[in-house]
Design brief:
It contains 47 helices and 44 strands. It is of the alpha/beta class and about 1200 residues long. Pfam families: F-box, LRR_6.
């Protein structure tokens, strides 16, 4: 009986799992950090197998893969890239085989390291895949101009080609190849000609002249000749002013003189879109770097490895003007010392990657300066440097939570003390390389202890005699212990504490034996790769035991004296594991990276046969007949795959951390509810990733249950709907164990819970963020309870005038660690208070001073001078008319501008409702502040000249708000959009002069734009034809707000839908002339999730809203105040069956019948509003709650008066019925 019930439970759980749409699963699986996890997922069910197959986009073909190639090509229909660098067979036959497969998405082919171009098969291949975009022919033995002409004939739309490093390249060969490229490929965007040894300047000129779309040119290890000299190269570059990336490097040092490089640099300054520059091992002077700096090139990547003849003056001048730099490589730079790096790091606020390897003068000071001054840094490489030479004071240490990858190999001075210090300031490290640091021992253990997210550690040749780990490390996946003198006892401890290891290297560990290896294999149940190279004491016969014991193993490098026979190799391969018997086999092409394609082919075939076998057993057909063709696989299946590995009712064998990462990336957090119904395991996981809790009167009875259910809460908000005793509530919360809680919101409360906060602080003294806006707060109590606060919001306080001084004293003296302060709406606090605040809070980075009475611009200026580290500033001096006229206007003074330009790290500036002149904006522009966000909403006094000059200098701007800018017209926006290549958000609402031209200019000239807000403008006034050149598709736009555009009509909306195919949200509310085009949006934008159509077409007499096609992605739909009828509503509910939120307020034509159709068809419906729907019966509410369990909120129709018993019944069903504000 119990067996049958458990089976039914598992079937029910699996059924719940299937209710999640495929698009959601695909989105989830894409975020798995390790692609090898797809293998585990594919074993869950045929459904998951199909989903993971569709996500695979690349395939590498080797000799082992060839027998399974047809199956793999059928299995992965969405392949975009195929790599043919490994097979040693006939390449023509292989291409013919690939051509016979249906791969509609294939865009890239890699033929590198081949002896010659397979010309016969390539013609046949091109007939099936004429739209190929990328081709790699690097390292070929023979590649002539005739071959390139053939490629041009076969693939005329090629955009990327790599013909670098040919095995033989004379002057004639290189010249002919470049000329063939120049004449045959018109649509090239990226060309790699590295390693061509000798190239004529005239050939590069022809290439740049003919390839009009060229954006990236790579010429590493290349020497140039020709009568025109470097001038010829400069002229070639001038042919392509759109060039974005250039990589140059001489194959012989000194081949190009310093003057040559300077000449080229003088010409490069004309490339206004230039973002990436690499000049490897070339002579370079300070003069040319200064020239490039003056032009303000928008560089994001700068690589100067091995360059010489330049110094600190040149590179500092360039970096001072390149505010957007994210990648910097100064490897092997002679002049670099600690002082240089400390000063340069202060100019690199946006840096993500830096390589300072092979600079022996650099010590700990350089490393910690980068960690301290580059808040966005994620990867640092300082190999073969002097880290460890100079000790750093602890006062100079600042925690950097962004740093994830740190490479410190071969730092001979590095010791335990330095490593422990690094671990304390980099808590989120994921990978660290300490190999060949022979003075480090216990410091490596401290890294594992303090860096709780560490995944990869390289400790090869570490100077440790004993390596004992006595704590759990659940995140560690890869560990390299090669050349360490560890013993079996230590290895056993490691395997127990790091039981989720996937790859372990034990090369040349001479003291370990088979006993230690056995412990590793038994304890590490997810182990995939293990290397035992030159482990002399490990018995050879342990290999077979490992393969059969740990089925997760995919690659083993065997110990000495292991002789692999052909029979053993085949047997191990049938188990999905590659075994290499020595170093040669371990590094050859047949075993490299354990051939994931080959192993997947085995797993796929085994799993496919298993499914057939199971289906036949359940149908009781073929297995009962003596001649059944399904009998033969049975011995293979029973010995190779236990049924538990392919049980369709089991969840994937993935670690909890992996599932949590998957669930966190679900687009809608409400989907967690569906996941929690799958199984107890999923319930536990979804509980663990819930971090926010809002407390209201409705939640209060369930609060103890919720606090136990969600142990990882970080934020608790007591909403304004809470009317109980806050002191009792806080005392109740303090009785629970919430170790991650660091934020509390008490805004809009009528009383201040002094007693409750004191009890709360005893349990949560480390609180980081507190919101007390719109309350009668007591800062003395707050400072006493939470001295470590980093963020506080005390805006719009209800206070008495006579306690202001005490309030100021508490805020300025009680909080030493504040990083963000919001003090808006306090009309009796003056300049002295703000000055004291900025003087006391030494860590202050963000300041919000809005609508703060007598605080003047001069006072703000004096205050921010005290805090030059400020990164975000929002100010205005609105006073509502009871102070001086000058303050009421909010004039931005020159003293304020002078203080503002001293904030060299300022990336966010909000001057809304102020008065600022063009001259002030020009001064800001001259300083090239690294602004990412700029808001001039409702500002006055400035014009086009000032804002255009500022935007020209702010290359990194991502957020721009110019709402209600009186001077703005279409011409201004068209010209400004050309300066905003990095813009992601723009708001131009309340500008009546702007029409369709402005909107389409932003879409055309801002390739990264995702959110456009143009409400209450003139869109629709000026008609554009679909064939006009200004219409360019922008696939990045996701959010479009066009509410209250009275001129907007169907033609314009249809055109916008055509150029924004990836829209997810559109707001067309109160657009009276729009009707049927809203349906065109649903048809053209296949990713649409939210639509606001409130009061749509109210100026039209007849409007029929008929949706006759499926819209599977639409989740939120607002149809309030539309004159739709039951028939149209029924069509909508059938076409948009995955709706989660529907607003039908004031839809006077719909009746109870229409509402019932919606509730029946929309099985995921959570929220519905029926406010003012006069023809809807109030009796339908109870039916809705019982008929659709997914419902969570219902705004009832008129005349609905629920009893208290009904309210309780609805809440027991998990549904709230009433006004949203209740």
């Amino acid at each position: 009986m119990s067996s049958s019930s458990s089976t039914s439970d598992s079937e029910s759980e699996y059924s719940n799992l299937q209710h999640i749409p495929d698009e959601c699963w695909e989105s989830v699986f894409k975020y798995l950090s390790d692609p090898l996890d797809h293998e585990s997922l594919s074993l869950v069910s045929s459904h998951f197998l199909s989903l993971t197959n569709r996500l695979r986009t690349s395939l590498t073909v080797s000799d082992h893969v060839l027998p399974f190639l047809p199956a793999l090509l059928r299995r992965f229909p969405n392949l975009t890239s195929i790599n043919l660098t490994r097979p040693t067979g006939e390449l023509n036959a292989l291409l013919f085989q690939i051509s016979s497969s249906h791969l509609p998405s294939l865009r890239s082919l890699d033929l590198s390291h081949q002896p010659a171009l397979p010309s016969i098969a390539l013609r046949h291949f091109s007939r099936k895949f004429p739209a190929l975009k990328s081709l790699n022919c690097s390292f070929m033995d023979s590649l002539t101009d005739k071959d390139l002409n053939l490629i041009a004939e076969c693939f005329p739309n090629l955009e990327e080609i790599d013909i670098s490093y040919p095995n033989y390249s004379g002057i004639a060969d290189a010249e002919s190849r470049v000329n063939a490229l120049a004449s045959g490929f018109k649509k090239l965007r990226k060309v790699n000609l590295s390693g061509s040894h000798i190239v004529w300047f005239s050939s590069i000129f022809d290439l740049c002249q003919n390839c009009e779309f060229l954006e990236e040119l790579v010429l590493l290890s290349t020497n140039f000749i020709g009568p025109t000299g470097p001038i010829g190269f400069a002229n070639a570059i001038l042919q392509r002013p759109e060039l974005r990336s250039l990589a140059l490097g001489c194959s012989r040092v000194g081949f190009m003189s310093e003057g040559d490089v300077i000449s080229k640099f003088f010409e490069l300054v004309s490339l206004k879109e230039f973002t990436c520059l690499e000049l490897s091992y070339s002579p370079l002077s300070d003069e040319c770097l200064c020239v490039a700096a003056e032009e303000g090139l928008p560089l994001r990547e700068l690589s100067l490895p091995g360059c010489f003849q330049y110094g600190y003056g040149g590179i500092s001048s360039l970096l001072r003007n390149c505010n957007n730099l994210q990648h910097l490589d100064l490897q092997c730079t002679e002049f670099l010392d600690d002082r240089c790096v400390i000063e340069l790091s202060m100019l690199l606020g946006n840096l993500n990657f830096v390589n300072l390897s092979e600079n022996s003068k650099l010590s700990d000071s350089s490393l910690f300066a980068i960690i301290r001054n580059c808040p966005l840094i994620t990867e640092i490489r300082m190999e073969r440097a002097g880290v460890g030479k100079q000790k750093v004071e602890k006062d100079c240490l600042v925690v950097n939570s962004h740093l994830k990858f740190l490479y410190l190999t071969r730092n001979s001075y590095l010791n335990d003390e330095s490593v422990e210090m690094i671990a304390s300031v980099c808590p989120n490290l994921e990978k660290m390389d300490l190999s060949y640091c022979e003075r480090v021992s216990e410091g490596a253990v401290e890294v594992l202890r303090k860096c709780c997210k560490i995944r990869h550690m390289n400790l090869a040749r570490l100077g440790s005699e004993l390596f004992r780990i006595d704590f759990e490390i659940p995140t560690l996946c890869l560990l390299n212990l090669s050349w360490l003198r560890i013993r079996d006892e230590e290895l056993s401890l490691i395997s127990k504490r790091c039981h989720r290891l996937r790859e372990l290297k034990l090369d040349f560990c001479q003291k370990i034996t088979a006993n230690g290896v056995t412990q590793v294999v038994e304890n590490c149940k997810q182990l995939r790769v293990i290397s035992l190279l030159s482990c002399e004491k490990v018995a050879a016969d342990v290999v077979a035991w490992m393969v059969f014991t740990r089925r997760s193993l995919r690659k083993i490098i065997a110990p000495p004296r292991f002789h692999l026979t052909e029979g053993q190799r085949d047997l191990f391969l049938r188990h999905g594991c590659i075994v290499s018997s020595d170093l040669t086999n371990a590094t050859d092409s047949s075993a490299r990276n354990y051939e994931p394609e080959f192993l997947e082919a085995f797993l796929y075939n085994r799993f496919y046969v298993k499914l057939i076998f199971e289906n036949d057993v359940t149908s009781h057909n073929h297995l009962d007949t003596p001649n059944s063709h399904h009998r033969s696989p049975k011995p293979f299946l029973t010995t190779m795959i236990p049924s538990s590995r392919c049980c369709r009712h089991q969840e994937p064998h993935l670690p909890d951390e992996c599932w949590e990462l998957v669930f966190k990336h679900l687009s809608d957090p409400l989907d967690h509810e569906s996941l929690s119904l799958v199984s107890r395991h999923f319930l536990s996981l979804t509980n663990g990733i819930h971090t926010n809790l809002d407390v209201s009167d409705r939640v209060l009875p369930l609060l103890p249950v919720l606090l136990r259910r969600f142990p990882n809460l970080t934020t608790i908000k007591i909403t304004r709907c809470f009317t109980g005793d806050i002191n009792v509530l806080l005392s109740q919360i303090a009785s629970f164990n919430l170790p991650s809680l660091h934020s509390l919101d008490l805004s809009h409360q009528l009383t201040f819970p002094t007693h409750g906060l004191r009890q709360f602080s005893q349990k949560f003294s480390a609180l980081k963020s507190l919101n007390c806006s719109h309350t009668r707060h007591d800062l003395d109590v707050i400072a006493e309870c939470f001295p470590n606060l980093e963020e506080i919001d005390v805006s719009f306080r209800r206070y008495k005038i006579d306690i202001v001084s005490d309030w100021v004293k508490a805020l300025t003296l009680g909080f030493k660690k504040l990083r963000k302060v919001t003090i808006s709406g306090n009309f009796t606090l003056g300049d002295s208070y703000l000055l004291a605040l900025c003087h006391t809070c030494v860590f202050l980075q963000e300041l919000v001073v809005i609508q703060t009475g007598p605080v003047s611009m001069i006072g703000i200026a004096n205050a921010i001078r005290k805090r030059p580290e400020l990164r975000s500033l929002a100010v205005n001096c609105l006073t509502y008319g009871f102070f001086s006229e000058d303050l009421r206007k909010g004039n931005v003074t020159w003293d304020f501008i002078d203080a503002l330009v001293s904030l060299k790290g300022l990336n966010c500036l909000d001057l809304s409702y102020s008065s600022i002149s063009d001259q002030a904006l020009c001064v800001l522009a001259e300083e090239s502040l690294p602004l990412k966000k700029l808001s001039l909403r409702c500002c006055k006094g400035y014009g086009y000249g000032g804002i255009s000059y500022l935007l020209k200098k702010c290359n990194n701007l991502q957020y721009l708000d110019l709402q209600r800018a009186g001077f703005l017209n279409d011409q201004c926006v068209v010209e400004l959009s050309l300066l905003l290549s990095n813009l992601k958000f723009v708001k131009l609402s309340d500008n009546a002069k702007l029409t369709d031209l402005s909107l389409l200019a932003i879409m055309r000239n801002c390739p990264l734009i995702t959110d456009i807000r143009m409400e209450s403008t003139g869109i629709g006034k000026q008609k554009l034809q679909e064939e006009e050149d200004c219409l360019i598709v922008n696939s990045q736009v996701k959010f479009l707000y066009l509410a209250s555009n009275t001129w907007l009509d169907d033609g314009t909306v249809t055109m916008l839908a055509a150029v924004c195919p990836n829209l997810e949200m559109i707001d067309l509310s109160k657009c009276g002339r729009v009707s049927k085009s809203a349906i065109d949006v649903l048809w053209s934008c296949r990713k649409i999730q939210r639509m606001d159509l409130a009061l749509l077409g109210h100026e039209l007499f007849q409007f029929r809203f008929r949706v006759c096609f499926d819209v599977p992605t639409l989740f939120v739909l607002n149809l309030s105040q539309l004159s739709i009828c039951n028939e149209e509503l029924s069509l909508i509910s059938k076409s948009c069956c995955k709706l989660k939120e529907l607003d039908l307020a004031s839809c006077h034509k719909i009746t109870t019948r229409g509402v019932k159709q919606v509730v029946k068809n929309c099985k995921q419906l959570r929220t519905i509003s029926l406010a003012s729907c006069e023809k809807v019966s109030p009796n339908v509410v109870a039916w809705m709650v019982s008929a659709r369990p997914s419902l969570r909120k219902i705004r009832p129709p008129p005349r609905f008066f629920p009893t208290e018993c009904q309210r309780d019944l609805f809440r027991r069903h998990g549904c709230f019925v009433g006004k949203w504000s209740d």
